From TrEMBL, chain A:
This is DUF3488 domain-containing transglutaminase family protein. Keywords: Membrane, Transmembrane, Transmembrane helix. Coiled coil: none annotated. PANTHER family: PROTEIN-GLUTAMINE GAMMA-GLUTAMYLTRANSFERASE. The chain crosses the membrane at residues 20-53, 65-83, 112-129, 135-153, 165-187, 554-576. It comes from Marichromatium bheemlicum. The keyword Transmembrane helix applies. Pfam families: DUF4129 (PF13559), TgpA_N (PF11992), Transglut_core (PF01841). It comes from the Bacteria. The keyword Lipid metabolism does not apply.
UniProtKB/TrEMBL annotation, chain B:
Residues 227-266 form the DUF58 domain. Pfam families: DUF58. Keywords: Membrane, Transmembrane, Transmembrane helix. It comes from Marichromatium bheemlicum. This is DUF58 domain-containing protein. The keyword Membrane applies. The chain crosses the membrane at residues 47-65, 71-90. InterPro entries: DUF58.
Length: 664, 332
């Protein structure tokens, strides 16, 4: 026997709901558009515009064939721009285009519901591109708008349009927050990906390249982004010691310095002849898409990173999302002497770019029979004494930049100094190499860590001195402070000024801006620490702190289920108990029953008021009048179609005189 | 092909078993159905299933790419969905339903029932959909501690008491992800009169020297005195078609000569073999007599309704017909 059920026709979404959905989708798509190619953005924005126009004028609604054509065009557009539809950007572009197209086809309620849930997917896709706190908050609002639309689509909440939907959503969201937190903390994570769809980063990141030529570092310096954060476990080193090594360049063609192919030979030698002033710290590196890591000069041990030749740290794969690693560095060290082949490699010079006046300069230092150390000292003195200027806006150099810089322009940035200094050292027969990295760090008092910005990028030189190994020399630091061009730096950098420029003019404004930057970054860092970097490892740490470490992932799962159930129970208890407020009529009836209970005539469980009344009258005919009068008032007021608004008052009056006594 | 009746029987058997297993909320002695926790069923809607599938994809993707923000949002949506399930359940829990029958109808007409819904406590209820076997009411919202009503119609086929039958209360509140429903059995029954026959032999007139005179046959024999609003059961021959054509509504012409007569409408006076058919003819006679303004009485085997005139007498007599031969009918 199958019952043919009556069914409700699916409600047709009205214009307000369509507009609402369109606006929420647009809001959710805006961040993604900024990471996609402009040709994708143009198509999607055009589709959105068409949707809005068609909402206003129905004639603009594209027909079925036009929609098919538009779909084909959108797919072709994605293929043309990205060449594939499975990469991160290609996939996201295709998904967004299809979502925008689906917006043009909102016939029934289920179309709106489908778009709404796909919007949830779109939001999560964006986190593959950016995971900043601001974006997360913004997209949380988008999700809220989407849930409110679902509540409105379900309808019949009564009392206006927007209010009930928003109230429902807010309540749901607030109740969902504790559950979300429990799941986030305890849901078992994977420690390694199960599969890789090749969603590789395809966008250019700011950061070092593995070559250096005039202008390369200064380009980076004007970039205001964060390079990495450092948390020192003990007292941080003094600022002049904060050289963060990243790359070592061996080879030059007179203009460019590159890594080259130094004959390292054999296993990587990390042996240090001496190491003191050890210092432990943790680095959280922003994505670079490169493998090199930065460590304080000179790392001796590392966790979460591997060692490479020349005492450098390398990540196991390209850093596509923030990477956390721990390092121990020795500030005072002496490296062991390199092989003869390496020593020779560090002396190679492109003969074509060596000019007679360079030779003469070096000869003048060497001529007085000085040893290598004295030559280095004289060279630095030369940079200090002569009119060398330190500026971010150096004049253009000719085909031989080292020569032009040394003898003509004498204005340059760290790469000019490092490049020419290293060249001169090699000319003097002292092995030398260029090091790229960052100099300095800005303490963040709020977050208790140090920030290193892209604008702190720096280049310096290491020379090989007999008996001392590789020694760090920073020719830029030799420049007379009076010849540092503050003006161009502050104009270019504003608050992002490297600490080493030591701004004095307009200091309070810069301080204010710097304070604001520190505050903003400490929030970002907390976000990074507590949300983005929360991992399987942290979960196990949490378990261990609870004394459940032995149980491993199973313990985590059990703990999750238990905590989740408890939280859910608490939330539901609030749901049941809070709204139960007594009905004035019911409370009158309860009082009526209590009075009758005194004479042993309480209602039986499950007995309705009418049956109870009949039983009372049968037992005590003398009470027939008040009891039947009470029920005659109470029953229609409580269950009748049009309750008497004065029923409560009249019931009260009746109850005042109703005090039944036991019969003797 | 030969197996199909067999299969249909099996399917029917299973459906009946399943139907018998369903829990239903029944009326209390005071006629109120209270929806309890054990009588509420809940399942995801189709949209809920799609939502779940998308969440699963989001979860796997976020886990795989170790994207904590993706996980955070996925968990949030999952928690919202789970709470939506409980909200749907709470939306039905503690609802009180009471059904009241509408006016009596003739068999074949829809019987209307009024249902009033109230929620215990201050919790507002939203998106309550009440449906019977054939009819569905518009979704209701019931503010806390208030009462809202709606109507359901049931098609009648036979005379007697027509119960409302099972009423399903369902809700997709708050997001349409889950549908919670409850089978309720509110106690309410409408009286169904036998459908009046198209034509019936005229009843016997009584009184001094009265001849058997056919009623309502004389087109213009009697004096036309005026028109009144059409009542169900009026003879179509007395309809004022001209007035109807002028869009003045359905009117019945009244004739002087029929008033003041006395008629006995008798079971025994009819010769039709089928008792139900005889009842329909009696109904027709009663309607005609009332339409003519006569004083009439009804004699059924074992039952007699004395002579009287007017609408109340018509209802009394029709009730006799409706419940004739039905056991326990007089209890209502």
């Amino acid at each position: 026997m199958t019952i043919e059920r009556a069914h409700w026709p699916e409600p047709v979404p009205d214009r307000l709901q369509q507009l609402w959905l369109t606006l929420v989708v647009i809001a959710g798509a805006v961040p993604l558009l900024s990471w996609l190619d402009w040709r994708i953005a143009v198509l999607v924005v055009a589709l959105f515009a068409l949707r809005l126009v068609a909402l206003r004028w129905h004639g603009a609604q594209p027909g079925r064939w036009l929609l098919v054509l538009l779909t084909l065009a959108a797919v072709a557009n994605c293929l043309y721009v990205y060449g594939n539809l499975s990469g991160r950007q290609g996939g996201a572009a295709l998904f967004l285009s299809m979502l925008a197209l689906k917006l043009l086809e909102l016939r029934a309620r289920r179309d709106l519901q489908l778009v709404a849930i796909l919007l949830g997917f779109l939001v999560v896709v964006q986190f593959l591109f950016d995971q900043s706190l601001g974006l997360a908050l913004y997209l949380a609002l988008v999700i809220g708008g989407m849930l409110a639309l679902l509540a409105d689509l379900n309808g019949a909440a009564g009392g206006g349009r927007l209010r009930p939907a928003l109230t429902t959503t807010t309540r749901l969201a607030l109740q969902a927050l504790p559950l979300t937190l429990v799941l986030f903390l305890l849901f078992p994570r994977l420690s390694a990906p199960l599969w890789d769809l090749g969603l590789d980063a395809e966008q250019a990141r700011t950061g070092f390249s593995d070559t250096m030529e005039p202008g390369a570092v200064s380009e980076l310096v004007v970039n205001g982004e964060l390079a990495f954060r450092v948390r020192f476990y003990a007292t941080p080193p003094p600022p002049e010691q904060r050289y963060w090594r990243g790359l070592v360049l061996w080879q030059t063609d007179g203009r460019r310095w590159t890594v080259g192919e130094p004959p390292q030979g054999g296993p990587v030698s990390l042996a240090l002849a001496a190491a003191a002033d050890r210092l432990d710290y943790e680095v959280v590196l922003e994505p670079t898409d490169r493998r090199w890591l930065f460590a304080l000069d000179l790392p001796v041990a590392a966790e979460g990173a591997a060692f490479a030749p020349d005492h450098l740290l390398r990540a196991r794969r390209a850093v596509e999302s923030a990477l956390r690693y721990r390092v121990r560095s020795a500030l005072d060290y002496r490296t062991s002497p390199p092989s003869a082949a390496l020593r020779d490699y560090a002396l190679r010079l492109p003969a074509a770019t060596i000019t007679p006046r360079m030779r003469a300069l070096v000869a003048s230092w060497r001529g007085e029979g000085a040893d290598d150390q004295a030559v280095v000292r004289r060279a630095l003195a030369h940079f200090n004494r002569e009119a060398f200027h330190y500026t971010l806006l150096p004049p253009p150099l000719g085909p031989n930049p080292v020569d032009a810089f040394l003898f003509e322009t004498r204005r340059g940035f760290c790469e000019h100094y490092a490049s020419s200094f290293a060249t001169l050292m090699r000319l003097a027969g002292i092995p030398s190499r260029v090091v790229l990295g960052y100099l300095g760090s800005e303490p963040n008092a709020i977050g208790g860590y140090h920030m290193v910005w892209q604008s702190d990028a720096h280049a310096w030189v290491e020379v090989l001195l007999p008996g001392r190994g590789w020694v760090r020399v920073d020719p830029t630091a030799a420049v007379d402070p009076s010849r540092i061009d503050n003006q161009s730096a502050s104009r270019l950098l504003g608050a992002g000024n490297p600490v080493r420029f030591e701004l004095t003019q307009g200091a309070w404004l810069a301080q204010l801006a710097r304070g604001a930057r520190q505050f903003a970054d400490s929030i970002d860092a907390a976000w990074q620490d507590w949300v983005l970097d929360f991992s399987a490892e942290d979960q196990l740490g949490l378990l261990q702190r609870l004394g459940l470490g032995r149980l491993g992932e199973y313990g985590l799962a059990v703990l999750m289920v238990a905590t989740f159930s408890l939280t859910l129970g608490a939330v539901l208890l609030g749901l049941v108990r809070a709204p139960r407020v007594s009905d004035p009529l019911v409370s009158r009836h309860a009082r009526f029953c209590r009075r009758l209970a005194r004479i042993g005539l309480a209602p039986h469980p499950g007995e309705g008021p009418q049956d109870h009344g009949r039983r009372v009258i049968a037992a005590r005919p003398d009470l027939a009048a008040p009891v039947s009068r009470f029920l005659a008032l109470y029953l229609p007021a409580r269950f009748g179609p049009a309750p008497d608004p004065r029923a409560v008052v009249r019931l009260d009056a009746l109850l005042r005189g109703f005090r039944p006594r036991r019969r003797r | 092909m030969s197996r199909s009746p067999e299969r249909a029987r099996w399917r029917g058997w299973f459906a009946a078993r399943f139907d018998a297993m369903l829990r239903r909320a029944r009326s209390d002695p005071d006629g109120v159905v209270r929806i309890g926790a054990r009588q509420i069923y809940i399942l995801p809607t189709r949209f809920g299933l799609v939502f779940g599938a998308v969440l699963l994809v989001m979860l796997l993707g976020s886990l795989n790419y170790q994207n904590n923000l993706g996980l955070l949002f996925t968990f949030f949506l999952a928690a919202v969905a789970l709470l939506a399930m409980h909200h749907a359940w709470f939306n039905l829990l503690g609802l009180e339903l009471q059904a009241r029958p509408g006016a009596a109808v003739f068999a074949g007409e829809p019987a209307r029932f009024t249902l009033s819904v109230r929620g215990r406590g201050r919790r507002a209820r939203a998106d309550l959909r009440l449906s019977g076997a054939e009819d569905a009411a518009a979704p209701l919202a019931v503010p806390g501690d208030e009462q809202r009503g709606c109507a359901l119609a049931v098609t009648t086929r036979r005379r007697g008491w027509q119960p409302l039958g099972e009423v399903r209360v369902e809700t997709c509140h708050p997001l349409g992800l889950f549908r919670a429903w409850c089978h309720t059995l509110p106690q309410a029954a409408t009286l169904v009169y036998p459908a009046p026959a198209q034509r019936a032999p005229p009843p016997l007139g009584t009184g001094a020297g009265a001849r058997a005179q056919p009623l309502g046959t004389g087109g213009g024999v009697e004096d036309y005195v005026g028109a009144r609003d059409y009542r169900h059961g009026d003879s179509p021959r007395h309809l004022d078609w001209k007035a109807y054509a002028r869009e003045r509504g359905l009117l019945t012409k009244q004739f002087e000569g029929e008033q003041g007569r006395e008629l006995w409408i008798e079971w025994a006076a009819l010769a039709t073999a089928d008792p139900e058919a005889r009842l329909t003819e009696l109904a027709r006679q009663l309607l005609d007599a009332a339409a003519a303004g006569a004083r009439f009485g009804l004699r059924l085997p074992g039952v007699e309704e004395p002579l009287a005139a007017g609408e109340a007498q018509l209802q009394r007599c029709l009730t006799r017909l409706a419940l004739f031969g039905q056991e326990g009918g007089d209890d209502h």
